């Protein structure tokens, strides 16, 4: 299971999600880009800036909830540990 963080090009929003297939989920976010009924579509959040593995769904969901409860500054500090330039992470080369 993956816990991941997306942002938009302006870095104005952070979206935190959980999935068992990160490539598939990123694709789904990208094809929904611009769909105003979806958070990632409304804010064009489709840049993967952070992800981590969790051993199972229960722990992934718990970690997602934990991260969602953090301040913006704490989330930014976490992203900076893996990706200080906030560049889009290409899973093919990761």
UniProtKB/TrEMBL annotation:
Pfam families membership: GIY-YIG
CDD domains referenced in this protein's UniProt entry, alphabetically: GIY-YIG_unchar_3
InterPro entries for the chain: GIY-YIG_endonuc, GIY-YIG_endonuc_sf, UPF0213_domain
SUPFAM superfamilies recorded: GIY-YIG endonuclease
Family in the record: Belongs to the UPF0213 family.
Protein known as: GIY-YIG domain-containing protein
Organism encoding this protein: Hymenobacter lapidarius
Cleavable signal peptide: none
Top-rank taxon: Bacteria
